[in-house]
Amino acid sequence: MRTTLLTVFAALLLLPAMAQPVTPQDRRRAAELMRRMTLDEKVGQLVQQRGKGAVTGPDKTQLSVEQLVREGRCGSVFNIYSFEETERLQKIAVEESRLGIPLLIGADVIHGFRTIFPVNLAVAASWDPSAAESLARVAAREASAMGIQWTFSPMCDVSRDPRWGRVSEGAGEDPYLGSRVAEAMVRGYQGDLSDPSSILACVKHFAAYGAPQAGREYHTVDMSERVFRDSYLPPYRAALDAGAVTVMTSFNDLDGVPATANRWLLRDLLRDELGFGGFVVTDYGTIGELKAHGVAADDAQAAELALRAGVNMDMMSAAYLFHAAELVRQGRIAESLIDSLCCEVLAVKFRLGLFDDPFRYQVKEREECYYAPEHLDAARRVARSSMVLLENRGDVLPLKKGSRIALVGPFADSRWDMIGSWVHFAEADRTSTFREGLCRRFGDDRVICVRGCDPHKGTEEGFAEAVAAAAKSDVVLVALGLTAGESGEAASLASIALPEVQRQLLECLKQTGKPIVVLLVTGRPMELAREAELADALLLTWYPGTMAGEALADVVSGDYNPSGRLPMTFPRTVGQVPIHYDMKNTGRPAAVSGQPQKYTSRYIDVPNSPQYCFGYGLGYTTFGYSDLRVLTPAAKLGDEVRVAVRVTNTGGRDGEEVVQLYVRDLIASVTRPVRELKGFEKVMLRAGESREVTFTLTPDDLSFWRLDNKWGQEPGDYHVWAGHDSDCTLGGSFRITE
């Protein structure tokens, strides 16, 4: 299972052991240091600023970051873009401040540092946690070479709305898959924190940020506690259980209280219930934004609310910098609260080893790891395993040997659009484009590349050039989709359709009669009903990263049999959004077969079903399922349930299959989803080979937020399915008794 990625990283990186949480010794060392600190210095450890620029005070005076660090009034900086600058600021902190407390240097390292992997949603599409772990491990190695000690990743937000641009940064719609990806990324980033190549992970955005109303960035989130605990909390919890020692607050409110001022979230739930022992940082400027939310009249009140809620570090609002100490002096908050929050920050710094060797990460020779051959190889493997084959009529793919290829479209030879958003440290000239990858694989003389149109505009001349290229070729590969800037933060879209000019280009190419392969470049699910009709094959490439060209060539040549599966449902139309596989049945479910009944939960203009369901994806071979056996047909509360199924490669090529297990609780104290993913395994099978795959369902897998407002199991009857995607039909049953 997963031999490719695991083998390369066993040989390459020798993944370190799991990070341990902050220890009592770390806290004792922090408390001892704090006895020598002034109130202003303790507040300083709660302040984070950008590494460049100045801060404007209430009296309009300008304070440089260097001055704040020298005075012990800034404990963390972020997004510095050179080794020399990280070293310079760290030396100021260690050698020129009164107590020499090291800085914690953070950065947005989201899906790679120099070597860029596919966007995170694409990595989730590999359905291979080792792929997510390898992304994080390579990113940590490269980031640490520049003195970075902390990344604001992984994003653990479940999202069911493709209009939201930041779906590209998460793992999709499912809490189980999201949990496996989140914990893998924490392991990859942190490993053993005594290792200089490890960096701190940050669980974000706490909490429920993936459900903004109307899919609009920074918007209100309104959900029941039951929905939150069942569907949105699990990936955060998994990341914390994996050892993550920092958490970031989200921009949104939850139950009417902004996350940055939400004591229930940050104290009752995060610290008391989930046992979190690290520290909490805000997202960019969110303390100041409490004024716009309408819960604080000024920065001083905003700072007070955040401090009381349990926010340790203020990213960029400067509300703590200018008001926290004064709040203590005015008697509005106790100094013991500042002490507690400061101690948690310092304990993490001790845990990371910064006091023992503040420059351990900053070794220039380590920069040789940028674009190391093993890193590029890992990025290539993850990119090709994340691509999802959605259509392949007539077996157009893989390409026939000796084919003359027309490569057309606005993304055929684009570098920046291959690497997606959140790539602050990327170097576009190191990115392999689709054109370059195909030319290297098939030969320059076999590939004609023309742009055809820009992403949002085109001309008759461009279309004519594209049609002429198609006429000279045996097959047409059309690279269509969205630009990198149309995914990520602040990139919400009301329409998720392909831009009209690109669809027109596709229509023109269809008229040539040549086989058409659409290469879809995107960071989100899109409306593809018309494209699915026009294309003979449709390959979802996502934003594939630094090794885009090589990964694409591996897939379309047949050197690699595509194994990606969808981590989010693709709707027929945006009007179905939010749409996800684990919906509730309702009291009037739509008819599954036969004539639809009028008074049921359905649309009258389109089917309820999506264009492509969760877990879906094709390959160059086929797989069959049989002999599903519930090995534990009856179990007691607290016992495990085991299910086995036989999967067979029924085609003519070797390939990987993602075996998926779904469960439904038939009768419960509250309404439950029609099915929930509770297990998956990616297996490699030779042509004709069969294998039995066994899953173990734990009590936690069968638990939910019950009517008594407690997390746990209930006795009752369950149905279980195993198969290729969320529409699988091979099933069985079991019963849980008291």
Descriptive overview:
Helix 8 packs parallel to helix 9. With 738 residues, this protein is of the alpha/beta class. Residues 1-18 have low confidence and may be disordered. It is globular.
Number of strands: 28
Structural class: alpha/beta
Radius of gyration: 26 Å
Q: Low-confidence parts lasting 5 or more residues at pLDDT below 50?
A: 1-18
Overall helicity: 25-40%
Strand order of the largest sheet: 13-18-17-16-14-15
Mean pLDDT metric: 95
Q: Biggest β-sheet, characterized?
A: 6 strands, mixed
Proportion in β-strands:
15-25%
Amino- and carboxy-terminal Cα gap: 36 Å
How many helices in DSSP terms? 21
What would the keywords be for this entry?
738 residues, five-stranded parallel β-sheet
In short:
With 738 residues, the chain is of the alpha/beta class.
List the helices and strands and how they pair.
Layout: H1 3-12, H2 24-34, H3 39-44, E1 47-50, E2 54-56, E3 62-64, H4 65-70, E4 76-78, H5 83-96, E5 104-107, H6 120-125, H7 129-144, E6 150-151, H8 175-190, E7 202-206, H9 225-241, E8 246-249, E9 253-254, E10 257-258, H10 263-273, E11 279-281, H11 290-293, H12 299-309, E12 314-315, H13 319-329, H14 335-352, H15 373-386, E13 388-392, E14 405-408, H16 416-419, H17 434-442, E15 447-450, H18 460-471, E16 475-481, H19 500-510, E17 516-521, H20 529-534, E18 537-540, H21 548-557, E19 623-630, E20 634-636, E21 641-649, E22 655-665, E23 676-685, E24 690-697, E25 704-705, E26 711-712, E27 716-723, E28 731-737
